[in-house]
Every structure is written in structure tokens, then in C-alpha cells.
Design goal:
mainly alpha, about 400 residues, single chain, 3-stranded antiparallel sheet
Length: about 400
């Protein structure tokens, strides 16, 4: 899912030209996951209806709907975010713009009541998450406590709440990051008529470009204003350069290596954005000290190895989002956070970290079945909970 054209699959350019319905990033991959879910259910019914079990009943529809696709996501997702900064920026921009629209809406009593209903369901959903990871389990406990406190706050102040900005500001001051993000998602769920259209704008034509006639001084200023975070790292410290990323020869999948321990450092992929920007900045000032009127072309003639990072800086400095503000080369790098960030855009839930390098999760749990698509009643299936299948004689006979 992190590389079209891999092992004979269609290149992305061919997909967007010949299959416009799948021309949004990961649309085809998510469609396949959804269809595999339905196929698994259909295959199960087919098997049990064979001669050995001619009178077998179909699985309860609520259970069918509750089944999701189990997924394990490893390092393959992480480099994708770095290598596609413009798409990453577009995804975040769409979400933030949708949220800004929601914040501008009045927080009416019916909407607050609906939000509390969603919160109750989300709490039950989190209660049903199973993880042996201590860090995630603690986050889940904090999340549940925060949601309970937030619900109490609503009950005590609902009549005083005027808009969603007030609610969002309260959450930012008092609750964990997990609770803040979940609250944002719930608020988005309240306004499908506003936010759904943003899903159609997740694709963007990618092209990292620079203007060779632009002044080198202006490029240096772009680094200062947009990439100021890179100077938080001291790359003379060996711990900040202890990790390298490479592709395995057999599966062509990303792997992590330790500098000075593992072989293959000379084959590492380019993910050290912070280091590259720092190096570019240092050489820029060397040039500008000698010629304050130098252009980007002058700079690249003297330092051609910086061409790639210059194009990235020139392009991404015009955007608000897109760059992952972290050093992915440091010894303590945690790719798991990158994996979760990307998966969240797919509507994935029930994160269960198995290490710092991979995470289990669930896709399409609660989603309508194929036969239910385009029918009424299935616009609200976020944060699904286990169906109540308590046995009663009436239910058995009905």
C-alpha cells in the first residue's frame, strides 16, 4: 500500500488517468480491504451451507457488520509520509479546514446532546479495545477519564456554552492529547453536510520546484521561518545520527539499521530532512557571506548536492503543513507515531502497538455491508461497539 508499481502493480500515473474513481491516494487499497471483508463473510456462509451443514443459519447481521479487517502496519508507511510532503500537507489542510468550518457553527442544545451520545459510544468503543502495550493502555485509561470529566462539564455548563470554539478551548486546557483529538473527530461527525465534501479534495499533483533566479537570501529566510525546528537538533551528537533507513533486498520494504552496528548505511534512503536543511543552511550562509546578492542558481552551482532539499524548502515553505517535525535519524526514533498518524486518515481504529516499529489495528469495523450501501441509516458508524446478542426464547423463535 506504500508504493504503486511495486511487483507489477499499476503505476500511480496510470491509475489516476484510467481510473478516476480511484484517483485519490489509497482509494484502491482501501476498496480492496473493504471487499476482502465482505468476501470473508460470504465465503464463511458458503462453506457452512455446503452438504455438511445444509440447515446452518447465516451469521447475525449485526455481527457481520461488527467484523472488521485486522491489519498490521509496519515501517512501510513511515517513509511514505516523508516522501510525499505535499499530499501529507493536503490531508492535514483538508481536515483542519473542515474543523474550522465546524468551529464556526453554533453549539446548539440538540447538537451538544448528539455529541454526548457519540461520546458515550466512543467510551464503550475504547473500553472494548484490547492491548497489552502499557503505554497505549495508559493512554486509553486517561482518555476514558477525560471523556467522563468532559461529559460532567457538559452536564454542568451546557446552558452556558455558546459555540464549539469554547468547548475546544476547554479541552485544550484540561484534557490529554488523545481526548482532544477524539473530541475533534466527534465534532466533525456532527456535521456530515459540511465536512464530507472535503474527502473529495485529498489528492494533489506533486511537484517540488524551485526558482533558480530567486535570491539565496530569500531561501535562507524561508528556512528561518518555516524550518526553524530543525535547529533544535545537534547533529554533532552521535545519538542524533544513530539510525539509518534502508529497503530490504527481498521484499523491498523499509528497515531500520544502527550506524556502526548494521551493514548497509551507504544504501540508506533520504529521510534525514532536518539534517539536510541544516547542512543547506550552513552552506547558504557561507555563500551569502561572500556574495549577499547570490541567487539560488549561484548556490546550486557551487553546492549541487543540495538541489533536492532546495526544491523541498522552496515548495514546502509555501505550505502550512506537510513536514514531520522530527529527526528520523535519532537513536530513539519511534516510527509507531508516524504509522498511527497516517492510519488515522483512513478511519482506522483500535490501535495496539506491538513494538516501536509496528502496530495492529482494525479497518471497517461497523461499516455497512455491501448490500447496505446507499441505503438509509448508515451514515453514523464511527466508534462501533459490540452488538448485544443476549439470548432470549423470543429472539430464537422470531
Amino acid at each position: 500500500v506504500y508504493g504503486s508499481g511495486k511487483f507489477g502493480a499499476c503505476d500511480w500515473d496510470k491509475v489516476i488517468k484510467q481510473h478516476p474513481d480511484l484517483a485519490s491516494p489509497f482509494a484502491s487499497e482501501m476498496l480492496v480491504c473493504y471487499l476482502l471483508r465482505q468476501f470473508s463473510i460470504d465465503q464463511l456462509h458458503h462453506l457452512v451451507h455446503q452438504e455438511a451443514y445444509p440447515d446452518a443459519v447465516d451469521m447475525n447481521v449485526d455481527v457481520q457488520r461488527y467484523l472488521g479487517i485486522g491489519n498490521s502496519t509496519g515501517l512501510g508507511m513511515a517513509p511514505w509520509l516523508v516522501n510525499h510532503p505535499q499530499i501529507t500537507a493536503q490531508w492535514v489542510l483538508q481536515r483542519e479546514t473542515a474543523f474550522a468550518r465546524v468551529l464556526s457553527m453554533p453549539a446548539t442544545a440538540p447538537k451538544i446532546s448528539q455529541l454526548q451520545e457519540l461520546m458515550a459510544r466512543a467510551c464503550q468503543h475504547v473500553h472494548e479495545v484490547s492491548t497489552f502495550d502499557a503505554w497505549q493502555a495508559n493512554n486509553n485509561r486517561m482518555l476514558l477519564a477525560d471523556l467522563e470529566n468532559l461529559n460532567d462539564w457538559f452536564n454542568n455548563t451546557a446552558t452556558e456554552v455558546q459555540d464549539w470554539q469554547q468547548i475546544h478551548a476547554w479541552a485544550e486546557r484540561h484534557y490529554s492529547l488523545e481526548a482532544q483529538e477524539l473530541l475533534i473527530n466527534l465534532m466533525l461527525e456532527l456535521y456530515p453536510d459540511i465536512v464530507d465534501s472535503f474527502a473529495q479534495g485529498m489528492a494533489i499533483a506533486e511537484s517540488l520546484q524551485y526558482d533558480p533566479t530567486e535570491s539565496a537570501q530569500r531561501l535562507a529566510e524561508a528556512i528561518k521561518h518555516t524550518y526553524d525546528w530543525v535547529f533544535d537538533y545537534n547533529f554533532n551528537d552521535a545519538e542524533q545520527m544513530a539510525t539509518f533507513w534502508y529497503y530490504s533486498q527481498n521484499k523491498v520494504e523499509p528497515r531500520l539499521g544502527k550506524v556502526g552496528v548494521d551493514a548497509g548505511a551507504e544504501l540508506q534512503m533520504f529521510l534525514g530532512i532536518a539534517k539536510a536543511v541544516q547542512d543547506c543552511h550552513a552552506d547558504l550562509h557561507t555563500l551569502l557571506d561572500a556574495d549577499k546578492d547570490a541567487t539560488v542558481a549561484d548556490f546550486l552551482l557551487q553546492y549541487p548536492s543540495h538541489q533536492g532539499i532546495v526544491a523541498r524548502i522552496a515548495t514546502m515553505s509555501k505550505t502550512t503543513y506537510g513536514e514531520i517535525r522530527a529527526n528520523l535519524l535519532e537513536e530513539s526514533v519511534l516510527p509507531m507515531h508516524l504509522l498511527r498518524a497516517k492510519l488515522a486518515f483512513f478511519g482506522v481504529s483500535k490501535f495496539d502497538p506491538k513494538s516501536a516499529l509496528w502496530v495492529r489495528n482494525t479497518m471497517f469495523q461497523g461499516a455497512p455491508l455491501v448490500s447496505e450501501i446507499n441505503t438509509n441509516g448508515f451514515d453514523d458508524w464511527s466508534f462501533p461497539v459490540a452488538p448485544d446478542l443476549a439470548y432470549t426464547p423470543e429472539a430464537a423463535s422470531g
